[in-house]
Amino acid sequence: MRCGMCVGQCPTYKLFQLNEETPRARIRTIEKILAGGETVSASELVHLNSCLLCRACETACPSRMAYGSLFDNAQAVLSEGRRRTILAASAFKLIESKLLRRALITLITLYIRSGLQSLVRRSGLLKMLNLVEADGISRLPSLSGMADRYPAKKKTLGKVALFTGCLTEPFDRETLNAATDLLNAIGYDVLIPKGQTCCGAIHQHNGKQQSVPDFIRRNREAFAALDIDAVVFIATGCGAMLDEYPQDDEPGVEFHERLFDVDDFLLQHWPDRLRLKSCYLKVAVHEPCSQRNVLKNQKSVYALLQKIPGIDVQPLSGSDVCCGAGGAYMLTHPENAARLRDMKLQAIASAAPDVVVSANFGCALYLNSAESSPTVKVIHPLKLLADCL
Ligand code: SF4
Ligand code: SF4
């Protein structure tokens, strides 16, 4: 319809105030790419690729335009016959291979523990290799694997399997532990199936859609084999991808029927007997785009945090605007991403909360990595809840 209702929702339009940086202009470029026959200029491609894929435009569109899949399909066409940079090709390989991920985890651990990181940071090498942002978000990984099963604390009411994907287990163990503790506390055994793999989101959104059916098959098989009540995810970025796995056959429908965001599952199964300790913190909620614009279940976070007596929970102002993390966007478009993050950091500074919560690991990682980051840390809401058990 080209009505323009999506324009004001777009973070890149907020940054640049340019028609080329609007969803509407990008859709015209996508139309050219998908229909073929018309030349797409280099400038049109630059503006298309500066999209964060936050999908805020979808929520504003009266025509229910499916921007996410249009963008993915255009990227798939553009990537045909295109040579990838070594960095991009290695990132895909890392996500695909457990063995390579293990090697990376060992390397990161050595890099940080040996003191090499501080040396390299001072040397200027990171700037030369264009790796400043990647270094900024690097964290000491957890080296031990998770157990196959975590039994409920008291009487077992059921069983759930936790989706750990590709990077959560080594890099966000704190949240996985919190999820396990909470699920055990409400009476559920937690299983961690080893056959699961990455959700496939990075491949889906970056022109490598041909690899996605394999991720889907492996994940469906890993969970279908289990006698469980639910498949539970903790990161909304992965959850948004899992939620959009095709449902055009029985395995697809079954997988979807058992899929839950951990916040929703906890809320639905929270027993009256379970009381949390009081906590008088002022908490600001950052709503990740994957949660707000795709899963649309951001209210669950507020409801769940209300289980903590004494807590003061408020939305962070500007919650409808992306923080800049945007999957790999923080690495591919560091300047745009940093400007959006600065806006978020200003909102945090004016709200002056004791803590900020975000249900997406990528947002928390990116907000916490800012050099100018306030002393207020961004954590997963589950961490706060588990601390009050
Ligand atoms: S994408 Fe939707 S909201 Fe945006 S211009 Fe087109 S019809 Fe309007
Ligand atoms: S996905 Fe986000 S950044 Fe991309 S066009 Fe839509 S609103 Fe703008």
UniProtKB/TrEMBL annotation:
<dbReference type="InterPro" id="IPR012257">
    <property type="entry name" value="Glc_ox_4Fe-4S"/>
</dbReference>
<dbReference type="InterPro" id="IPR017900">
    <property type="entry name" value="4Fe4S_Fe_S_CS"/>
</dbReference>
<dbReference type="GO" id="GO:0019154">
    <property type="term" value="F:glycolate dehydrogenase activity"/>
</dbReference>
<dbReference type="InterPro" id="IPR009051">
    <property type="entry name" value="Helical_ferredxn"/>
</dbReference>
<dbReference type="GO" id="GO:0046872">
    <property type="term" value="F:metal ion binding"/>
</dbReference>
<dbReference type="Pfam" id="PF02754">
    <property type="entry name" value="CCG"/>
</dbReference>
<feature type="domain" description="4Fe-4S ferredoxin-type">
    <location>
        <begin position="1"/>
        <end position="21"/>
    </location>
</feature>
<comment type="function">
    <text>Component of a complex that catalyzes the oxidation of glycolate to glyoxylate.</text>
</comment>
<keyword id="KW-0479">Metal-binding</keyword>
<dbReference type="InterPro" id="IPR017896">
    <property type="entry name" value="4Fe4S_Fe-S-bd"/>
</dbReference>
<keyword id="KW-0249">Electron transport</keyword>
<keyword id="KW-0411">Iron-sulfur</keyword>
<dbReference type="InterPro" id="IPR004017">
    <property type="entry name" value="Cys_rich_dom"/>
</dbReference>
<feature type="domain" description="4Fe-4S ferredoxin-type">
    <location>
        <begin position="42"/>
        <end position="73"/>
    </location>
</feature>
<keyword id="KW-0408">Iron</keyword>
<keyword id="KW-0813">Transport</keyword>
<keyword id="KW-0004">4Fe-4S</keyword>
<dbReference type="Pfam" id="PF13534">
    <property type="entry name" value="Fer4_17"/>
</dbReference>
<keyword id="KW-0677">Repeat</keyword>
<dbReference type="GO" id="GO:0051539">
    <property type="term" value="F:4 iron, 4 sulfur cluster binding"/>
</dbReference>
<protein>
    <recommendedName>
        <fullName>Glycolate oxidase iron-sulfur subunit</fullName>
        <ecNumber>1.1.99.14</ecNumber>
    </recommendedName>
</protein>
